[in-house]
Amino acid sequence: MSIPALPVPLAVVPIPVVPAGAGHAFAGSLLLSAALVVFGMIPLGMARAKAFTPADLKAPREMFDRLPAWGKRATWAHQNFFEAFVLHAPACLLCLVMAAPVVSAAPWTVTAAWLHPLLRLGYLGAYLGNVAPLRSLCWIGALLCSGVLYGEGLRALLRA
Hints:
Blueprint: H1 8-11, H2 24-39, H3 41-51, H4 69-97, H5 99-105, H6 108-128, H7 132-159
């Protein structure tokens, strides 16, 4: 059995070649940020388990009012993980596609990529512990990390 040849339009599509290791930080940041969205369900599930009654099967959103204060904060933190991931993921993908020029022109983007999930983890702890100033610092720090990735990724794209 022979393998059919690729159609001509597909055969000439350029595929970017990234030097080994150049995009590891951006891929790692993307995966860790996605994992944090899942990890954020653990405290939320613990709070829901404490407040659950069989009547919640008919109206699960009404359980929120019976959650302990930390459970409500776990709900809000989990919702915020989705919001942060939606902002951070495209920045990571942009830097991953443009990894070589981004890393060579702005090596601090690697630090920003790794710092983002760490700050988001700190955000979860600060939110659950009700430490508002630390929570705000972690939130703005992670947002700035995503901004750095967007800025350097776009800069590299415009230079290409």
